[in-house]
């Protein structure tokens, strides 16, 4: 049983600890400091409560997710909304994971769809070969990611401390690093809201994954202890990612300064470095900036470091490989969980459902090479993730389940209010792709309106 607990902890950790821990959450640990961290614990605990409740629902009843939704919650339509949200999250995660891989090899953005297709093909192939040992396989990949992320954070810190020598760069790096443990930074309402939603997204709510995990969890497994371990691991790795970004920013500052002083670097190249550094500086200081605008700022770091600082190849490889492995563990779990949901709903075999989920993920990831389409898909989780989490938790109110209905109702209200607020920000944004992304997020909820039809059809 200890082995199962260990594997389940790392399986959940592999899903939870993904690209958002690198691309978005470090922004708030740097701009809000420990105040932001303490506030982030609230949505984190709320999410852990939902994760536990959802997994326990299928663990205790021994129903599969669609059976639970149909026979107990009487809401079979919800699974279609969750599946569509899962497909979008799979495509977005695959695109940005592959983006990191492209930067390691110095490839242009045109190669990202090819790397994305390769990543999904590799994930599907590994899941097919794993067969009955999927849990062990996913857990091993997750363990490798955790070890690599911690090692890369330590090595990047050492590299930055040894190479960042310019007084201004040292001052900037120390400021970014000390901000993470500071209580003196001010909070903003808009920034805190975005941080809360980012926490929900990073914990993977809204895709139905935890119901599926509970359906094959051994009855004797103590999920509370497993989730407590994941909770601690999430905090440790989130801080590791924040320090990784902070030290990388210091190195980026020095690279930008040296480029302007180097007569061999053309003025237009120096200006590009300045613009990229300015984006990085804004990332680390402007808490109100939408996380949707901050995601790709992270990828400015390799562009600033390359050929401008010692050991640039090592630093870039460490940073981007950590990001890629974080994404890969999430991708594998999304494909496996999505295929189980699809096979249950559509009565497909495991391999065909794996292939179908993989193809849809490839389509979304490949389409994201177009800037406006990329913005549209990225907006979806940041505009409706909280609403999707509320929809996902609705079956917990069923009378046949033993969860505290008052607590579940309060959590759903919190998610609903947060979701409506972020949806409002997206719908009123000046950019049309952002508005379209918010509308696409609302489209995911359309199947819920057809719940009565599905119930009648099943009768």
Automatic annotation (TrEMBL):
**Mitochondrion listed as a keyword:** no
* Tagged with keyword rRNA-binding: no
| Gene Ontology annotations for the cellular component aspect, listed alphabetically | membrane
Identify its membrane topology class.
Answer: Multi-pass membrane protein
- Protein name, as recorded: Uncharacterized protein
The record's keywords, sorted A to Z, are:
Membrane, Transmembrane, Transmembrane helix, Transport
Which SUPFAM superfamilies does the entry link to? SNF-like (SSF161070)
Q: Where in the cell is it found?
A: Membrane
| Regions crossing the membrane | 28-52, 73-96, 102-130, 137-156, 192-214, 226-249, 315-334, 354-370, 376-394, 406-427, 433-455
Q: Which domain of life is it from?
A: Archaea
**InterPro entries associated with the record:** Na/ntran_symport, SNS_sf
- Taxonomic source organism: Thermococcus celericrescens
Q: What is its main location?
A: membrane
Q: What is the lineage of its organism?
A: Archaea, Methanobacteriati, Methanobacteriota, Thermococci, Thermococcales
């Amino acid at each position: 049983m200890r082995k199962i607990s260990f594997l389940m902890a790392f399986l959940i950790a592999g899903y939870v600890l993904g690209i958002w821990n690198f691309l978005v959450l470090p922004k708030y640990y740097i701009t809000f400091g420990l105040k932001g961290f303490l506030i982030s614990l609230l949505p984190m605990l709320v999410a852990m409560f939902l994760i536990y409740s959802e997994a326990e629902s299928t663990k205790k009843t021994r129903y599969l997710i669609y059976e639970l939704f149909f026979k107990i919650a009487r809401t079979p339509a919800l699974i279609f909304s969750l599946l569509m949200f899962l497909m979008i999250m799979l495509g977005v995660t695959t695109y940005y994971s592959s983006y990191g891989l492209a930067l390691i090899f110095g490839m242009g953005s045109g190669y990202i769809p090819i790397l994305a297709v390769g990543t999904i093909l590799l994930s599907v192939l590994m899941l097919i070969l794993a067969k009955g040992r999927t849990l062990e396989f996913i857990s091993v990949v997750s363990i490798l990611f955790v070890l690599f992320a911690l090692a890369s954070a330590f090595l990047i810190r050492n590299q930055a401390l040894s190479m960042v020598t310019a007084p201004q760069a040292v001052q900037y790096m120390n400021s970014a690093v000390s901000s993470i443990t500071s209580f003196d930074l001010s909070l903003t309402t808009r920034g805190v809201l975005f941080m809360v939603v980012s926490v929900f997204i990073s914990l993977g709510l809204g895709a139905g994954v935890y119901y599926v995990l509970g359906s094959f969890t051994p009855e004797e497994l103590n999920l509370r202890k497993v989730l407590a371990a994941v909770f601690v691991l999430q905090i440790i790795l989130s801080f590791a990612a924040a320090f990784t970004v902070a030290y990388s920013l210091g190195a980026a500052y020095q690279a930008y300064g040296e480029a302007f002083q180097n007569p061999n670097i053309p003025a237009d190249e120096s200006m590009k470095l300045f613009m990229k550094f300015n984006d990085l500086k804004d990332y680390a200081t402007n808490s109100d900036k939408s996380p949707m605008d901050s995601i790709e700022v992270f990828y400015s770091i390799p562009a600033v470091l390359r050929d401008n600082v010692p050991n640039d190849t090592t630093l870039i490889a460490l940073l981007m490989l950590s990001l890629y492995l974080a994404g890969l563990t999430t991708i594998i779990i999304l494909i496996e969980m999505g295929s189980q949901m699809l096979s249950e709903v559509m009565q497909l075999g495991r391999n065909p459902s794996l292939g179908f989920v993989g193809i849809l993920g490839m389509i979304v990831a490949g389409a994201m090479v177009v800037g406006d389409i990329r913005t549209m898909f990225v907006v979806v989780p940041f505009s409706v993730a909280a609403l999707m989490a509320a929809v996902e938790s609705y079956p917990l109110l069923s009378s046949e389940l033993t969860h505290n209905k008052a607590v579940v109702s309060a959590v759903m209200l919190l998610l609903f209010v947060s979701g409506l607020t972020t949806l409002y920000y997206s719908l009123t944004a000046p950019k049309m792709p952002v508005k379209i992304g918010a509308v696409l997020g609302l489209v995911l909820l359309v199947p819920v309106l057809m719940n009565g039809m599905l119930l009648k059809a099943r009768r």
